[in-house]
Every structure is written in structure tokens, then in C-alpha cells.
């Protein structure tokens, strides 16, 4: 167990592997560094892998008051510098991918390249009449989850999020008990994220000058709102490649860790 004091917050992290390539994994909402447990063993021969609990999640400190995505980006930058991993490859899932993309725009010097899976940057789809009904449906479903957290029903909110927003009907019942408990424990931080006015805001100009390799990924079983976001990013980023994982959804590192690890390692080796 290791703790780093970053931007006034105690962050839990693990650094494993004997490889020469530094690789940082950034988890999404509701989760913890354990979200990557099935993936990390595939990576440690080639990479030195950093996983951590983002502020407000699991073993990292949760501060009172409204948080922001800007703080998550600053934490990621400072942790990379504190552990002397720069420049590093960074892979982010969901909201972790949003954080990674923001960091690429703000501190490209810290990255060798990035892998981003389905960032929920739905502001990029504003004005697109074709996806407007889907976005409104997602907004209502997330709103119902947020209301449930505010009422104190954290387990019910986590189940509702898994089954109706991110992973699909019946997913909650199939998740391991420890994963369900992690999501329940981290529900207050999702409420905090949802109340951040910048949560889903993104300007493509932030990453148009990013010159390092970019792999944008999605699953063909994911909610249909993520594909248009990935395509918007791919059009804006000059060095982006796109890969779709057959049979996978929003968490390929959990459901398809072999294929996801192979994709990461192949991409990293290609540009190392």
C-alpha cells in the first residue's frame, strides 16, 4: 500500500511491473484501482503500471465541498510527476478517459501517448438532432440516479446506474460482490461529479495540436451515445486510431481483458 500527498489530498496508488514502459491507468466513475485487476497481469512484463484511486474513491481521501474534473486532471499530472513516470502512456476508461484527454490538452509533455475508451463527453454532440433523443434519455436516467444518491440510497443508485446507464439490464446482479460494494461506497463521489458543471464539457481545440499517438476505443455492445463521441474526437485528433472490440461494452478491461491488453500492448510497441 502506498499513499501520496497530491494537491492536498491523500491518494492511494500501486506501482507494479518490471517493464521499462511507464503506463498509467485511470479508472472511471464509481470505481477504484481494482477495476484494472484483470488487466494489470497482462501488462507488467512490458510495462511499469501505475493504478490509483482517484480523489473521493475508495482508499483515497474524499474532501468536503464541490469537486471538479479540473482537480482530477491536476491530480493525475502531479502524481505522474511525483513518481517520476513522465513521459508516460496513459489509458483511461469512461470518465477516466475524459480526464486523460483533458491532460493531453493541458500537459502534453507528460504523455508518450494515450488510449481512451468511451469518454462521456456528450457536450460534443450538442446540436446533433440524430442523437438528441438518446442524450435526453441518458440525461433523465442519470438524473434519476443522482436523485437516488441524494436521498441516501447508494446501493440502489449504483444498481440503477449499472443497469440503465452504463452496462445494460441485469448487469448489477452479475457483478462480483466486491465490485457492487465499491460502487455503493463511491456513490457520493458520483453525485459530486454529476454536480460539476464542467463534467461533460470538452472543446476539441484543446486536443487538435496533440501530436502523440492516440488510440480511441469502443465496444460494439456499448450504449449508442459513445460511438458518436469517439468519432468526433477521431476527426479532431491528427494522430488518432480507432478500434472497436467485438462483443465488448463499456468496460472491456473487465469483460475482455485479454483482447484489451493485446490492443494496448500492440499500440504501445508500435510507437515505442
UniProtKB/TrEMBL annotation:
Keywords: Hydrolase
SUPFAM superfamilies: alpha/beta-Hydrolases
GO cellular component: membrane
Span of domain AB hydrolase-1: 23-263
Gene Ontology molecular functions: hydrolase activity
Protein name as catalogued: Alpha/beta hydrolase
Amino acid at each position: 500500500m502506498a499513499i501520496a500527498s497530491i494537491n492536498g489530498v491523500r491518494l492511494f496508488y500501486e506501482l507494479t511491473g518490471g517493464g521499462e514502459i511507464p503506463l498509467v491507468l485511470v479508472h472511471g466513475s464509481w470505481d477504484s484501482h481494482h477495476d484494472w485487476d484483470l488487466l494489470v497481469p497482462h501488462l507488467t512484463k512490458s510495462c511499469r503500471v501505475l493504478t490509483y484511486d482517484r480523489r473521493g474513491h475508495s482508499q483515497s481521501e474524499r474532501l468536503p465541498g464541490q469537486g471538479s474534473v479540473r482537480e482530477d486532471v491536476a491530480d493525475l499530472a502531479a502524481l505522474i510527476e511525483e513518481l517520476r513516470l513522465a513521459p508516460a502512456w496513459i489509458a483511461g476508461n469512461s470518465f477516466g478517459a475524459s480526464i486523460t484527454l483533458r491532460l493531453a490538452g493541458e500537459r502534453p509533455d507528460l504523455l508518450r501517448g494515450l488510449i481512451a475508451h468511451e469518454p462521456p463527453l456528450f457536450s460534443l454532440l450538442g446540436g446533433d438532432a440524430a442523437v438528441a433523443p438518446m442524450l435526453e434519455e441518458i440525461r433523465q436516467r442519470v438524473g434519476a440516479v443522482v436523485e437516488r444518491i441524494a436521498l441516501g440510497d447508494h446501493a440502489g443508485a449504483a444498481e440503477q446506474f449499472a443497469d440503465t446507464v452504463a452496462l445494460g439490464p441485469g448487469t448489477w446482479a452479475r457483478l462480483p460482490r466486491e465490485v457492487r460494494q465499491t460502487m455503493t461506497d463511491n456513490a457520493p463521489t458520483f453525485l459530486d461529479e454529476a454536480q460539476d458543471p464542467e463534467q461533460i464539457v470538452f472543446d476539441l481545440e484543446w486536443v487538435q495540436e496533440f501530436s502523440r499517438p492516440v488510440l480511441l476505443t469502443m465496444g460494439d455492445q456499448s450504449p449508442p451515445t459513445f460511438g458518436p463521441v469517439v468519432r468526433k474526437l477521431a476527426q479532431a485528433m491528427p494522430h488518432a486510431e480507432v478500434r472497436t472490440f467485438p462483443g465488448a461494452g463499456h468496460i472491456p478491461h473487465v469483460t475482455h481483458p485479454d483482447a484489451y491488453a493485446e490492443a494496448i500492448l500492440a499500440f504501445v510497441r508500435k510507437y515505442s
